[in-house]
Amino acid sequence: MNRIRIAGGGVGSRSAGEMLAEASEVMARFANGSLQPPCTAFPLSRVGEAWAHTGRSRAVVVPD
Hints:
This protein has helices at about 15-30, 45-50, and strands spanning about 40-45, 60.
């Protein structure tokens, strides 16, 4: 099983209860591929490229 960490802004836009109530649906959408956040994955060995990334998507560093 992989560990997943979701981080982001929006504190205060939803209550903690609302976010928790929707968490299982969000995880299910990640699992089935229907939720694809705009990110570009870079292996740790290419971390310099991740830092230099200027595209519209968020750079995400993942293990090699």
